[in-house]
Structures are given as structure tokens and as C-alpha cells.
């Protein structure tokens, strides 16, 4: 090879299209290292084609979507930065409560990812594919112009929809727990607590540094800890303090949802070309308004829905300097935080700072009453019971506090593919999604109903409970088992615990039982491809400890699965699901109050997300009327 074609000259001699193809086999770290070699390579690596290829490699959205997303950022490099950060969040997240199922699917929106809760529901006469799936928004993470992230929690209070802005903390690549927290922070230079500077004028070099910098894995609170050893992690606070902090902060930083930003959160299916293009226009405008609201705030009442007032200056974090001064003053003039402050309360109403001060005082009163009653018992308790930090110390850890979303990797035990969850963490837990392979062809998400033919309603029962099952494989003592874990149940009152194995079959043990029916819903003959022996869930020793009874799993043509209990002849029919497509054809319903909307910790055996079906519904689909269940949040 000639010397002039060696080294960097070889790359520089390649056309952009060819180098873009080669770059697909390189990691982001490799590309960033190339940009540091020399100015010529730096200019080559800065090509839009290179970073479009890298965005495509990330694999969150197809190439044609990337071209449309490019309108919302300064470059494909900025878009790649956003995609790399949010990719670990894509997938199914769950919580144990309520027992009917708490499924949040994180999917691409428009230069964003959206967390959507699937509402436990009955299946209408149109079936899974054509009937609208009910869902409620949980949170959004929007990519800013430079590819940085913006966190917006959804919630509903007193009949009004709100957004609750915050920050996205470190997102670990193999994260399995998503935490909603409040974090103390240091105030940034200037008066604004969130930067309002436009990123459209950022230089390529600056964005390159942001994309290429290594992820240290440290949250902002941990970074502050390097300068201030007194930082108290949110997780060390007592459960009551954490809950009260979250409720108070969300009550102060909320932004009103107006009609211009209410929807859509993601476009409809591309096959509906006309509506898809309309959605893109609305999404671009909505995203611009949301970013402005995030930076400048919005302050108006539930009855003030004019767009002219939708973007007005307002704080979205709480300052703590005045609060600490107030606490010091209170401690020197009174012996208790529960003293009469009626006069100061009246004066505090005159300023936002006073309003925040009164709110935090209320938190401290509750914390003091909770902690004070246990003071004597703590002195006599073991060190294991004295692990909670004081709320006062937490509030002294920074100048401001605000909401954060933290995606981390925790060591969790599991039973039959279902993680054991903490009862007092405001968290969601990720379920591992196995890609179907030749030896695990049934792995993945399936949905269906009881009865045959599948999904067909009857006059006495117009809708059937919709079940979501996650199928996974497990090998024990050389035997391969297929486990169907229940993650959603559309009954009015739960039949089996969340995370139960609806059935377990031995893949290596064929079943000789015949399939009871000769035809399907369209009167076509049924063709059974495979049948396996197994056991299905049954009544056991109470609700928490179900039993099992023999049955068989049948693999039918058109990709259907049917598990039949041998004794009762009950049949559960399943089909593989594409949640993203189902949600794009679905119907949005109101969310819960913000904290409960993210993580519902109250033990419940009924449907807390929806009421009951509307009997006057048109024949095209089965709808639901939602009713608030206020007592669940008291």
C-alpha cells in the first residue's frame, strides 16, 4: 500500500457515504477518539452522515423517523447524545401494586420517550389489534436542542392536568430500577434556577464534548458531595419524609396543561399518512412550548386556559436559603416547631419565598411529630433501626431542591422472572424482554383472554378481561421450562397475585391431549403445530399462595397459543403483542395524582386506574368511564 494512502489519509480519501457505512462498526468512543487525532479527521467525523449512521445504530427509531426528529435538534450528533442516554429506559416497567397490574411501557415519542401506563381493562368486540387500548401518561423525557434531557412527570389534581418538571439523573446502561426522588442542588450562576439560554448557537465542538465525555455514573447530588460532605441521599430519609417531600415539591413546581400541549405525545401509525403528518406538526409545536415552559415556568389557575398566559415566568425549583434562615430564627425564638405562626403565615402569603417557607415548615412539623414520638425507642433500638437521616440535614445539603428521575442498577432477587420489590420506594422495576430466538421462539410479551374462540364477546358478557403475560425460559436440572408471568389482569377484582405464573410448561415434554375445538372464530379448521405438558394456576392456600393443576399448551396456526386446564377445560388464548403499535392506536385517559401516578404503593386488589365500562357504548368498541377513587390517596 502506498504511504499516501496509509493512516488518516485512508479515511480522508473515502467518500462520506462509504465512511458512514464503516463507522457503523465503530463505537461512539472510537469515533470520538478519531476526532481528537487531527483537524482533518475531526472535520470528517463531524459529518452529519456519520452521526445519522450512529443514531441508526442505537436502534430506538427507524431511519425515516430520525430524519423527522432532526428538525428538533441542532445536529444528528446532538440527537445521538439524546438517544444513547434514553435507550436503557425503553421497555416494560412494573410495580407490585395494585395486584391487577401496574405496567408502564416506555416508548419513543417525538424527540422524546414517553412512559405510558396500560390500564387494566376488558377487551371489546374488535379484539386486541383493532380495539383501542386505554392508557394514561406517566412521564416524558424530551430531548432539548443540544440533545440534553428534560423530565416531565404527568399528574392530575382537582380535575386539572399538570406537568411536574425535573431533571434526569445518571441513567445506567443496565438499569433495572427507575426512582422518583427529590434532590438538593447548588444554585447555578445567575438568577434563573434552570438555564434559559438557547442551544441553537452552541458550537459543534461544545456538543462534541458533551457527546463524547465519559459517563462517570455520578448523580448531581454525588458530584456536590465531592465539595460538600454533608450531602444526605434522598434514599436515607424515612419513608414518611420522602413521601411528604415529593408531595410538597410536586405541589409547588407544577405547570398547567393547556389544550395546546395536551396531546399528542407521539404520532399515530405511519400507515395513516394524513393524520401522521398532522401529528408531526402538532408534536413539533407542542415540544417547543414544553421546552419554553420548562425553562420559564407557567403560573395560572385551573380556570385560566388562555394560551397567552401559558408561558409566564415562574420558579420550578424551591430555594432553601430563606428556609434555613427561617429555621434558625424559629429555633432561637421558640422551643418547638409547632408554635403559633398565624401572623407569619399571613405575611408569607405576600411572596413566593414565604409560600415555600411555610410549605417546608409544614414538612418539618410532620417530620418532627413522626420522629419525636419515636425518639425514646430509637435510643434503645439497634443500630439497624437508626439508619434514617434527618430531614433537616437533607434540606441543608444544597441551595435548591427539585424532582429527579434516577435510573440505576440494583441487585434484586427474583422468583420465576418476577423481581422482589421494595414496599417503600417510589420506583418502577424493569422486566427483561427476551428477543425470540430459534431455541426460545415463544419468549416475549403476549396478550389475550379466557375462552374460545379468542376474544369473541357474548350477549351476556360483552367484554372479556384482557391479560398481559410475559413469557420467559428457565432451565433447571437440564429441563427447559416456559413460564408465563402475569403482568396485567383486566378483571374488576384481582384473581391472582401480580407476577404469578399463569402456567408453566415443559418444552421437552410433548402433550398427547387433543385440542377440544375443530374451528376458530372465522370457522377455519384449527391446526395444532405443537403441544406441551404443563401446569396452570389454580386456587391454593389463600390469595398469596396459589396452587396449580395439570394442563397443556397448544401452539396453533397464525401464531396463537392456548393453554387448557385439563380438569376444568378452561382455556387462555394468547397472541404476540406489539405494545408500541397498540398504544399509537389507543385512547388516552386521565392520569392519577403525580406521586401515585409514578409509583402506586398502596396495596389494592381492585382497579384503581379505571372505573367500569359504559353500557351505552357504541358497538365499535368498548369504552370505560373513569371515576376518581379519592379514598385511595388519603
From TrEMBL:
Annotated InterPro entries: At5g39450-like, F-box-like_dom_sf, F-box_dom
F-box domain residues: 8-54
PROSITE patterns reported for this sequence: FBOX
Region (Disordered) location: 329-351
Name of the protein this chain belongs to: F-box domain-containing protein
Source organism of this protein record: Gossypium trilobum
Amino acid at each position: 500500500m502506498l504511504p499516501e494512502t496509509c493512516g488518516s489519509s485512508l479515511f480522508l480519501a473515502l467518500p462520506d457515504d462509504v465512511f458512514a457505512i464503516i463507522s457503523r462498526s465503530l463505537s461512539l468512543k472510537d469515533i470520538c477518539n478519531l476526532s481528537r487525532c487531527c483537524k482533518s479527521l475531526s472535520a470528517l467525523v463531524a459529518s452529519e452522515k456519520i452521526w445519522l449512521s450512529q443514531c441508526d445504530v442505537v436502534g430506538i427509531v427507524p431511519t425515516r423517523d430520525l430524519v423527522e426528529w432532526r428538525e428538533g435538534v441542532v445536529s444528528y450528533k446532538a440527537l445521538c447524545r439524546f438517544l444513547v442516554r434514553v435507550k436503557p429506559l425503553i421497555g416494560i416497567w412494573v410495580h407490585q401494586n395494585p395486584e391487577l397490574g401496574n405496567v408502564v411501557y416506555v416508548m419513543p415519542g417525538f424527540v422524546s420517550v414517553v412512559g405510558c401506563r396500560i390500564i387494566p381493562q376488558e377487551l371489546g368486540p374488535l379484539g386486541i389489534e383493532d380495539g383501542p387500548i386505554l392508557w394514561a401518561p406517566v412521564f416524558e423525557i424530551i430531548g432539548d436542542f443540544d440533545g440534553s434531557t428534560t423530565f416531565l412527570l404527568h399528574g392530575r389534581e382537582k380535575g386539572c392536568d399538570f406537568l411536574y418538571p425535573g431533571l434526569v439523573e445518571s441513567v445506567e446502561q443496565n438499569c433495572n430500577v427507575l426512582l422518583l426522588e427529590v434532590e438538593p442542588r447548588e444554585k447555578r450562576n445567575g438568577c434563573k434556577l434552570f438555564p434559559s439560554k438557547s442551544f441553537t448557537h452552541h458550537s459543534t465542538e461544545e456538543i462534541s464534548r458533551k457527546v463524547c465525555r465519559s459517563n462517570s455514573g455520578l448523580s448531581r447530588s454525588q458530584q456536590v458531595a465531592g465539595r460538600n460532605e454533608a450531602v444526605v441521599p434522598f434514599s436515607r430519609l424515612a419513608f414518611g419524609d420522602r413521601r411528604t417531600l415529593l408531595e410538597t415539591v410536586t405541589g409547588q413546581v407544577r405547570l398547567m396543561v393547556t389544550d395546546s400541549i395536551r396531546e399528542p405525545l407521539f404520532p399515530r401509525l405511519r400507515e395513516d399518512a394524513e393524520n401522521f403528518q398532522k401529528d408531526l406538526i402538532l408534536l413539533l409545536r407542542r415540544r417547543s412550548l414544553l421546552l419554553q415552559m420548562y425553562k420559564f415556568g407557567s403560573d395560572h389557575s385551573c380556570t385560566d386556559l388562555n394560551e397567552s398566559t401559558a408561558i409566564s415566568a415562574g420558579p420550578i425549583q424551591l430555594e432553601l436559603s430563606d428556609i434555613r434562615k427561617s429555621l434558625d430564627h424559629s429555633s432561637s425564638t421558640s422551643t418547638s416547631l409547632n408554635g403559633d405562626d398565624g401572623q407569619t403565615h399571613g405575611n408569607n402569603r405576600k411572596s413566593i419565598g414565604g409560600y415555600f417557607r411555610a410549605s417546608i415548615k409544614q414538612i418539618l412539623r410532620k417530620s418532627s411529630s413522626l420522629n419525636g414520638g419515636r425518639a425514646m425507642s430509637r435510643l434503645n433500638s439497634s443500630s439497624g433501626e437508626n439508619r434514617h437521616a434527618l430531614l433537616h440535614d437533607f434540606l441543608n445539603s444544597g441551595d435548591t431542591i427539585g424532582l429527579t428521575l434516577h435510573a440505576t442498577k440494583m441487585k434484586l432477587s427474583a422468583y420465576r422472572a418476577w423481581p422482589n420489590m421494595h414496599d417503600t420506594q417510589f420506583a418502577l422495576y424493569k422486566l427483561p424482554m427476551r428477543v425470540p430466538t430459534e431455541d426460545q421462539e415463544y419468549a416475549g410479551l403476549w396478550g389475550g383472554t379466557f375462552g374460545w374462540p379468542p376474544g369473541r364477546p357474548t350477549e351476556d358478557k360483552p367484554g372479556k378481561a384482557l391479560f398481559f403475560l410475559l413469557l420467559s425460559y428457565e432451565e433447571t436440572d437440564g429441563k427447559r421450562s416456559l413460564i408465563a408471568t402475569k403482568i396485567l389482569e383486566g378483571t374488576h377484582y384481582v384473581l391472582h397475585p401480580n407476577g404469578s405464573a399463569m402456567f408453566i410448561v415443559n418444552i421437552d415434554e410433548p402433550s398427547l391431549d387433543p385440542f377440544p375445538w375443530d374451528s376458530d372464530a372465522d370457522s377455519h379448521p384449527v391446526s395444532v403445530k405443537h403441544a406441551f405438558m404443563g401446569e396452570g394456576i389454580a386456587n391454593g392456600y389463600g390469595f398469596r399462595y396459589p396452587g396449580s393443576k395439570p394442563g397443556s399448551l397448544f401452539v396453533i396456526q397464525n401464531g396463537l397459543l392456548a393453554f387448557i386446564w385439563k380438569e376444568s377445560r378452561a382455556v387462555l388464548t394468547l397472541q404476540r403483542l406489539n405494545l408500541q403499535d397498540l398504544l399509537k392506536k389507543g385512547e388516552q385517559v386521565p392520569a392519577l395524582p403525580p406521586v401515585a401516578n409514578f409509583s402506586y404503593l398502596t396495596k389494592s386488589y381492585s382497579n384503581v386506574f379505571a372505573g367500569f365500562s359504559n353500557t351505552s357504548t357504541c358497538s365499535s368498541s368498548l369504552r370505560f368511564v373513569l371515576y376518581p377513587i379519592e379514598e385511595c390517596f388519603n
